[in-house]
Design goal:
The structure is a homodimer of 323-residue chains. Chain A is built from eleven helices and eleven strands. By secondary structure, chain A is of the alpha+beta class. At the A-B interface, helix 1, strand 1, strand 2, strand 3 and strand 4 of A face helix 1, strand 1, strand 2, strand 3 and strand 4 of B.
């Protein structure tokens, strides 16, 4: 199968909301009146972001979902995406499953594929997503204010625990142990918090999605907003399976575990009821975990309300691709 | 250097024409009133699209230029781009040179970097470009009409010859032979025909950029437009150095050589003077090379005006990543 037949068979669909989809030199899209385009891009590599033998349908779903999470963090509504794909070979069964997972995510979140590129090489997936948002309602990282509450959606640590279990499974000789299904689902098929992002439009201050770990991502808000933060370990919403871990592992999963794709945001104290109502409408729990402070880094209070010391915090630094 | 420091040092610049550039979850852009966004994406891989020891400044320039060529083929004007970059290591000298070449191209064609992603892995570059075009003036592949003239900009075959010379240089033992500077420039720093695309707005029919070879790319027009084409070998604008090659090599470079990034387009016969005037305004030669016919594939007439037979044509099929 050549490159163009491959694209036609697995990836080309008629344009729906966009003016012109794939199949030409360029796609054509336009935001609705009063809105602008929110754009984000990610690259996923085999061995770095996923295992070589990952289920391709799962990979297709996740590759788009993690990009949509950036739209959620901007309060944007999905519109379209492009896909650049490097493949070791044109394996039809693999492509069939990958495109099925990709379009499952695309259809679920109403986002259409409008163009792409395929080439032969080590498996790599680069997606760029486009969403719509009225510019005055787009959430940013640099808008946190002193005394803001800090909130997080859903639960933390599940994806990190699932990954740790998967790595342990792979390291163990003998028959493969089963993971915990809900946790694996969490790692492999994250659900971007798009509905929550839309419900939070207009009254929150700063927002980011938790992809590298809560502390690492909250640090982006704190640095961009020129402020500090104090969060309380006792208040963190932690996945049930993570709660049973020893303290050091639990702490690491909740504060430094990546891949949860929850939203972390700040809002004025007067908005507490509005935030909770937004969570209820979006059917996602929201939990108040701390407060924005004057610029002094991030303090984490342990369950006895004592600040974690520097060594404990350093052990919790988030994932960095070039560290 | 960690991932975020790397992005700040080499890639983060303040937003100019866009609403919000890099450094947040999403960039925000909007086309001007009456225009829509033209979007294209490409992925370049080491060993597939460039040599591992390529000059990184050249690579940075070309990675953006080949994407801008898709905007040119749509008659769009560059606005912005995103960059996803996988790197084996955070080599500062390499990044310095790569970003210099990238921004040289970006500044020359007035296109700003608005976001991206960096990760560690085999060198891979994925760029998505955004241009502006009034939707009714966007050129497409499916709009060729019977009896249209077929035109091509600039000269063909130079990049293919430069690549062949480079491969021969690398295969040869002993000191490296010099290429022909202008040809190597052609291969390594293609100049997207953006000015010509703008001048052609509104009165041409179909257009594509020549990235995989004239025949392969003209075939996309012919198939999308449900027509045929006859082109004349004698009329092809061929790079001077290519003209001196033996017939089979000359033919292959001109008809099947990729990487020239010229524009191939069709227009009504009544527009000949307008096309030539557009070329003059954009300071790019334009050459009439044939005619759109009823649907019957592509015929190539040789210099004695006899059609090339099937075997000769088959030997000229364009580059395909999965053939």
């Amino acid at each position: 199968m050549n490159e163009f037949a491959l694209i036609r068979q697995f990836f080309l669909r008629p344009a729906k909301r966009v003016l012109q989809g794939g199949g030409d030199d360029c796609a054509l899209i336009s935001p609705r009146a009063g809105q602008v385009l929110a754009i984000s891009t990610d690259m996923l590599l085999e061995g770095r972001h996923f295992f070589a033998d990952v289920d391709p349908a799962t990979l297709g779903f996740k590759a788009l979902a993690v990009n949509l999470s950036d739209l959620a963090a901007t309060c944007a509504e999905p519109l379209a995406f492009t896909l650049a794909l490097a493949l070791p070979e044109a394996n039809e069964a693999w492509l069939q499953a990958f495109s099925r997972g990709l379009f499952e995510c695309a259809d679920r979140f109403n986002c259409e594929l409008i163009g792409g590129d395929t080439t032969r090489g080590p498996l790599a997936i680069s997606i760029t997503v486009f969403g719509e948002v009225p510019p005055e309602l787009a959430a940013r990282r640099d808008s946190a204010r002193e005394h803001d509450d800090i909130w997080v959606s859903g639960e933390l640590g599940g994806a990190a625990l699932a990954l740790a279990m998967e790595i342990a499974n792979r390291a163990a000789e003998g028959p493969r142990r089963n993971g915990i299904a809900a946790l694996v689902e969490r790692l492999e098929r994250p659900l971007p918090r798009l509905a929550l992002g839309l419900e939070l439009r207009g009254f929150i201050h700063a927002m980011i999605d938790v992809s590298d770990g809560l502390l690492a991502d909250l640090r982006h808000i704190v640095e961009a907003s020129n402020c500090g933060a104090t969060i309380s370990e006792a208040q963190l919403p932690i996945s049930e399976d993570v709660r049973n871990l020893p303290l050091s592992q639990r702490r690491r999963a909740a504060l430094a575990g990546g891949d949860d794709y929850e939203l972390c945001f700040t809002a004025d104290r007067s908005q507490r009821e509005a935030v909770i109502a937004a969570g209820a409408k979006a059917d996602v729990p929201v939990t108040r975990i701390g407060e924005i402070t004057p610029p002094d880094g991030i303090r984490v209070m342990d369950i006895e309300n004592r600040p974690l010391d520097g060594a404990a915090l350093a052990a919790l630094s988030g994932f960095d691709h070039f560290d």
